[in-house]
Design goal:
The complex is a heterotrimer.
Chain A lengths: L1 H4 L6 H9 L5 H16 L3 H27 L7 H16 L1 H4 L7 H20 L4 H18 L4 H4 L5 E2 L16 H22 L3 H11 L1 H5 L5 H27 L1 E2 L6 H14 L6 H19 L3 H15 L3 H7 L2 H5 L7 H30 L6 E4 L2 E4 L3 H32 L8
Antiparallel strand pairs in A: 1-2, 3-4
Chain B lengths: L4 E10 L2 E11 L4 E5 L6 H8 L7 E6 L2 E2 L5 H6 L2 E3 L12 H10 L16 H13 L15 H14 L4 E5 L7 H14 L4 E5 L3 H7 L2 E6 L2 E6 L1 H6 L1 H14 L1
Parallel strand pairs in B: 3-8, 3-9, 6-7, 7-8
Antiparallel strand pairs in B: 1-2, 1-4, 4-5, 9-10
Chain C lengths: L1 H31 L6 H19 L1 H27 L4 H23 L15 E5 L2 E4 H23 L1 H11 L1 H6 L4 H27 L5 H16 L4 H20 L4 H7 L14 H4 L3 H4 L3 H12 L11
Helix pairs in contact in C: 1-5, 1-8, 1-9, 1-10, 2-3, 2-4, 2-8, 2-9, 3-8, 5-6, 9-10, 9-14
The chains are: A mainly alpha, B alpha/beta, C mainly alpha.
């Protein structure tokens, strides 16, 4: 909020014209170029796999934020719309007669339509109310559909799920999508298209009213709009793009199981979106990129990755409700005043010390976990590329020392950071 | 000619308590009608009944001859009735300009449109700017509405209320909690923006009532005890006895 | 007839257990407007704490101490977590409790690992109370019923007969007024949150030996508890009771009696498509009631929401 408070009211007109009459094309062009050249920089197969997953997560997170950020609707069961879209696509892939006449790049449209169809059915009763009631219904319906996956075997394939072969489709411009890199570009194109459509949607009358209903449903009703129908349309649109993400998942992995539907999956997308920041369009994109990267790296390094994630998430909700995007946008006023540079050193001091503290604490956690749960006689642990004996005194002293000193220093330097922050956000010459 | 707003035998009970006890009222087109009465007389309830916030227990409400029974607030709004609220009710996180633009969308025929860009519509932008001009908030257009001063928020609320082009405007205590100079400012504003429209308002400030209204109804304990021109109401002994006496002697 | 009685008892046990969770949840909701997603996590903590205490001091001390510890933790969460998030609105509050549920599950795995804990009912209760037509009813089940009913009578007494209860009831509806009368409403909120979570803790202590003490136990019961209070009507204590018992009995009975969809469809006059394994409807025809027992609450919830959006006992404007 603070960044908005300091918006300069003296020259509204020209900024307005620059802002909304011309589409801000630059970030889109940069994103397109980046998507185009990324595979040339990261050529390894594993890198392509990660980027594919990242792109799918971005679409899904953006679709989720159409609900959470734009519409103020918290869903605990959004994985089912992506999942059902994906399952439907899997069935299309397995239907030889139809699929051999369908170019693979068009398949996501069907995924979207199925996701949208399900959203229309569920939305017809779940969007009557926002807030807690909506959240509970989304959870119940999500659980119901996830539980159905073991009962309705014909559609969900029971425990093994449904798998298929994407290369049986009609070749598209001679491409059969046998290789990961071909799939990458397919996903990348769909990412650009869906992201652009979702961005434009937020600029339509319905998209604007979704914000209005989020902030004040009653007032919106007295402006001629039914809050319920505005929510319904947002929900359906979100279901469509979630379905596209599900279809891309089906194309990329060629298998869908119950895991694509369950609450864990729904929880992850909430996490990704919220960590990225629900208040800005690019928040979920950021969230998906960072989350996928950190997950890939950390989950290989430690069993306790979920524990750290839980801590980070709770801390974010409590102290940085704007998420990553919110943190970045907080710095806009300082940048506008040209005083961003003054924050550099204080940041370095406090955050550096904080990082040391976090590393120490993480080492402690790892060591405690190892001592408690490792098999009897196993005293060796590898933390930060160093292998040592968890029953020796020195590692504990070091870890505790790093934790205490790190957090202590961070605490001691925090007032300096606050002062620097206030200074950077005050125009020169203004009275404090 | 049918009345703009017609209430007959209107009643409303909450549990066993009857708050509105049989109100008959006819408000003609283009009339500026003020509803006054002591605290707890049921003025706000009356407003909420008319605008569909609560269902009535008995009686009928007609807007331009059409029955409003069972209609949701958004349907009533589409029929040409718009209201403001006693407690400021705007979209605090959106900019002032967006607040006004959102209130124009339905009346400009956009409905649940998801294929045209609001930023591209000259008519929308100009319409919203015109309203901003009328309520003197052009300089504030890009601020989030939540940071405006109280009087500015009230002005914005009136702007949102009239933006949709409704011909019956209902204002619930538009000057509540304002200083004298702010009140004068809002009264001028209301007079300006409601020209040619039917105005129904609840108000405590007698200066505002006698300055704006050409018809006054006095609501006491859920019943209207008098309706008429300001002079007639002022002279009505029943009103003086029930409510106005002291206030008028001071005035 | 005898089997019905056995199932009635089993369903009652499940229902009362659910009510012990949903009562706290719905009390907290109607007072603070926030649905505590982590409620079932406190139930899990109750079971784990009681297990840990029972190793050293035995089952009965666990029953006494664990709920207190859980209650204090709950109050702490309200005081230092929720109260801070409250300023951002209801949706962030819900997200906060969701994150808390995740964190507690991870924490439990961190401390106790992923395996089920050998948490058992005390030996003194490991006998058959009585038998109905060859079906033995363990004494522990009777004990569970006794404990839950006793707690509810206590709760009801506190809420309706004591001064504190009166203030709480008033604060439920008119927090501002109660605050203006000089009562410390934040303290009341914290207290109710603590008591609600302590109730969940009690449920965990007594359910742990029967349903198993493992990291997924919160999740298994949690979503059913939310469904319960949606069915009962958000914020309604009586609704929570009725819905809990309803769900307890429905799931128990549908597990005990093997009703087959095939029979139902045939009775309704449909003919079974042959061969069945090729029909797109094969899954519909092969459904049996034990198979869908666990998803019946969700189906019930969807039906209730369609036909009675405010739940069984919910107020229209809730």
């Amino acid at each position: 909020m603070t960044d908005q408070l300091t918006t300069d009211p003296t020259k509204p007109a020209q900024r307005m014209r620059a802002g909304s009459m011309v589409l801000p094309l630059t970030p889109w062009v940069i994103a397109a170029i980046a998507l185009l050249i990324l595979p040339f920089i990261f050529t390894a197969n594993s890198a392509i796999t990660i980027m594919n997953q990242m792109a799918i997560t971005i679409i899904f997170a953006l679709a989720y934020n159409m609900l959470l950020g734009q519409g103020g609707m918290l869903s605990f069961g959004h994985a089912v719309y992506a999942g059902v879209g994906g399952f439907a696509c899997m069935h299309i892939i397995n239907n030889d007669a139809f699929f051999s006449n369908l170019p693979l790049p068009l398949l996501p449209i069907f995924g979207g339509l199925f996701g949208m169809g399900l959203a229309m059915i569920v939305g017809s009763f779940s969007t009557r109310k926002a807030g807690t009631v909506f959240a509970m219904i989304s959870l119940g319906v999500g659980e119901l559909i996830a539980a159905c996956s073991v009962i309705i075997v014909a559609f969900f394939g029971g425990e093994e799920g449904i798998s298929g072969d994407r290369t049986y489709g009609l070749p598209f411009l001679g491409v059969e999508f046998l290789q990961q890199i071909e799939v990458y570009y397919l996903i990348a194109v769909w990412l650009m298209v869906s992201a652009a459509l979702m961005y434009l949607y937020s600029r339509t009358p319905l998209g604007r009213m979704a914000n209005a209903v989020r902030d004040n449903p009653e007032r919106a009703e007295f402006l001629g709009y039914s809050a319920r129908w505005v929510r319904f349309y947002s929900f359906v649109a979100s279901g469509f793009f979630a379905g596209i993400a599900g279809a891309l998942f089906a194309i990329n992995y060629e298998i869908l199981t119950e895991e694509n539907l369950n609450t864990t999956q729904s929880g992850i997308i909430l996490l990704v979106t919220f960590l990225g920041g629900v208040g800005f369009f690019f928040g979920p994109i950021l969230g998906a990129i960072v989350f996928t990267l950190v997950q890939t790296v950390l989950s290989l390094q430690t069993e306790l990755w979920g524990f750290y994630l839980g801590i980070v998430f709770v801390v974010t909700v409590m102290f940085f409700p704007g998420g990553l995007a919110g943190l970045i946008m907080m710095h806009v006023p300082a940048k506008r005043l040209g005083k961003l540079g003054r924050l550099g050193l204080p940041y370095l001091k406090t955050l550096g010390a904080g990082a040391l503290g976090c590393l120490g604490a993480a080492a402690l956690i790892e060591m405690v976990f190892h001592v408690r749960h490792a098999s009897v006689g196993d005293h060796e642990i590898t933390v930060y590329w160093t292998t040592f004996d968890t029953h020796g005194v020195l590692p504990w002293v070091l870890a505790i020392g790093a934790t205490v000193i790190g957090f202590g220093l961070a605490r001691a330097t925090a007032p300096g950071l606050v002062a620097a922050w206030n200074d950077a956000n005050t125009p020169d010459g203004a009275a404090r | 000619m049918t009345a703009a707003l017609q209430l007959s035998g209107l009643r409303k009970s909450f549990g066993k308590t009857e708050i509105i006890r049989g109100v008959d009222l006819s408000i003609g087109r283009g009339e500026r009608h003020a509803v006054i009465g002591p605290n707890g007389a049921g003025k706000s309830t009356l407003f909420n009944l008319i605008t569909g916030r609560f269902p009535q227990s008995a009686g009928t409400i007609t807007l331009h001859g059409e029955d409003l029974a069972g209609k949701a607030p958004f349907e009533i709004n589409r029929m040409g009735l718009s209201r403001s609220f006693q407690i400021t009710n705007i979209f605090p996180k959106m900019t002032v300009f967006e607040n006004v633009r959102c209130s124009l969308l339905w009346s400009m025929g956009y409905r649940y449109n998801f294929w045209s860009m609001v930023g591209r519509s000259r008519a929308l932008t100009e319409g919203a700017e015109q309203i901003l001009e009328q309520i003197n908030l052009t300089a504030r257009r890009d601020l989030p509405a939540g940071v405006l001063s109280y009087a500015e928020q009230r002005a914005l609320e009136i702007g949102i209320t009239i933006a949709g082009g409704a011909d019956v405007i209902m204002l619930d205590e538009p000057t509540a909690g304002m200083s004298h100079s702010e009140t004068d400012y809002i009264v001028d504003l209301i007079r300006k923006v409601t020209t040619g429209k039917t105005l129904v308002m609840v108000e405590h400030d007698m200066g505002v009532v006698f300055g704006l209204a050409d018809q006054i109804s006095v609501l006491v304990y859920g019943e209207i005890i008098a309706t008429g021109t300001p002079e007639a109401v002022r002279a009505n002994p029943k009103v003086q006895e029930a409510y106005l006496g002291a206030a008028l002697e001071d005035h | 007839m005898d089997l019905i009685l056995v199932n009635l008892i089993d369903g009652l046990v499940t229902g009362l257990l659910l009510f012990m969770l949903s009562a706290g949840l719905t009390l907290i909701f109607s007072m603070m407007g926030v649905l505590n997603f982590a409620h079932a996590s406190f139930y899990m903590l109750g079971a784990y704490f009681a297990f840990q205490i029972s190793l050293a001091l035995g089952f009965w001390m666990g029953l006494l101490i664990a709920p207190l510890v859980v209650g204090v933790m709950g109050a702490g969460v309200e005081r230092y977590g929720l109260r801070r998030v409250h300023q951002y609105g209801h949706v962030p509050e819900l997200i906060f409790t969701f994150g808390l549920a995740l964190l507690i599950e991870e924490l439990v795995q961190f401390i106790w690992g992923k395996n089920q804990m050998p948490y058992e009912a005390p030996e003194i209760l490991q006998f058959t109370a009585f038998a109905i037509a060859g079906n033995s009813i363990p004494a522990y089940k009777i004990f569970m019923i006794f404990i839950s009913v006793a707690i509810f009578i206590g709760l009801l007494w506190v809420l309706t007969r004591t001064r504190v209860g009166m203030i709480i009831q008033a604060a439920l509806t008119y927090p501002k007024t109660v605050e203006a009368l000089g009562h410390n409403v934040p303290l009341i909120f914290m207290g109710v949150f603590g008591v609600g979570t302590a109730l969940a803790g009690v449920a965990g202590v007594i359910a742990g030996p029967v349903l198993g003490t493992f990291p997924g136990m919160a999740f298994v019961l949690g979503s059913i508890v939310f469904v319960t209070i949606v069915i009962g009507g958000l914020g309604s204590l009586w609704g929570a009771l009725v819905a809990s018992l309803l769900i307890g009995w429905i799931t128990t009975f549908s597990k005990a009696y093997n009703l087959r969809m095939e029979d139902l469809l045939t009775t309704l006059g449909f003919t079974k498509p042959e061969p069945i394994w090729d029909s797109p409807w094969r899954d519909l025809w092969s459904i049996t009631s034990p198979q869908i027992a666990d998803i019946l609450p969700y189906i019930l919830m969807v039906l209730i929401l369609i036909f009675r959006p405010y739940g069984l006992f919910g107020k229209r404007d809730a």
